[in-house]
Amino acid sequence: MRSVLWLIILTSSFAPARAQSFEARQLLLDWQKLTQEKQILSDLYKGYQILSKGYTTISDLSHGSFDLHKAFLDGLLAVSPAVRTYHRVADIIRLQENIVSQYHSAWSLFRQDPHFSAGELELIGNVYAGLFDRTAKNLTDLANVLTDGLFRASDGERLDHIDDLYRDMAGSQAFLTSFNQQATLVSLQRSVDLRDYQSVRQLYGLNG
Questions:
Q1: Contacts for 136-143 with beta carbons within 8 Å, 24 or more apart?
Q2: pTM higher than 0.90 for the full model?
Q3: Which of 63, 94, 151, 191 would be a feasible disulfide site paired with 197, CB 3.0-4.6 Å?
C-alpha cells in the first residue's frame, strides 16, 4: 500500500514537468515555423521588388526605345541639305530642259517637212507625247524625294533614287536625240534631187 502511494506521488510530481516540456517544445516549433514564414514573406517581397523594378526598367527602356525609334523614323521623313544640294538634282532639271527644247524645235521642223505624211507626223507626235509623260513623271518623283514628310527614306536611299532618275532622264534625252537624227535622215533619203536635198539640210540647220 505504501509502495502504491509512493508511485502515485512520483507520478503526480513528474506530470507537470512533462506538460511543461511538451509546451516548450510546441512553442519552439511554433517559433521556428513563424521564423520560416517570415523569411518566406521577406523573400517574396524582395522578389516582388526585383520584378517590379525590372518591369519598370523594361517599361522605361521600351518607352525610350520607342521614342528613339519614332525620332529615327521622323528623321527619315525630313530631307537633309546633302540631298537637296546633290548635283544630280540640277543635272536632272537641265536634262528635262534640254528634252523639252529639242522636242519643240524638232516637232516644229518635222511639221514643216514635206517628206512626212500626216500619219507619220502623228506617229512622231505620239512618240514625243510618251517621252514627255515619262520625263514629267521623273520630275514628279524628284520633287517627292526632295519634299519633307512624303515618305520615309535614308539619305542614301534618296540619293540612289535620284541617281536612278538621272539615268532614266539621260536615257530619254539620248533616245530623243537619236530619234530626231533618224527622222532627219529619213527626210534626206526622200529628197528627189540635189536642190531638195540642200533644202532639207537647210531646214534642219545642217549646212556649214
A1: 138/92, 138/96, 138/165, 138/168, 138/169, 138/172, 139/92, 139/93, 139/96, 141/165, 142/89, 142/92
A2: no
A3: 191
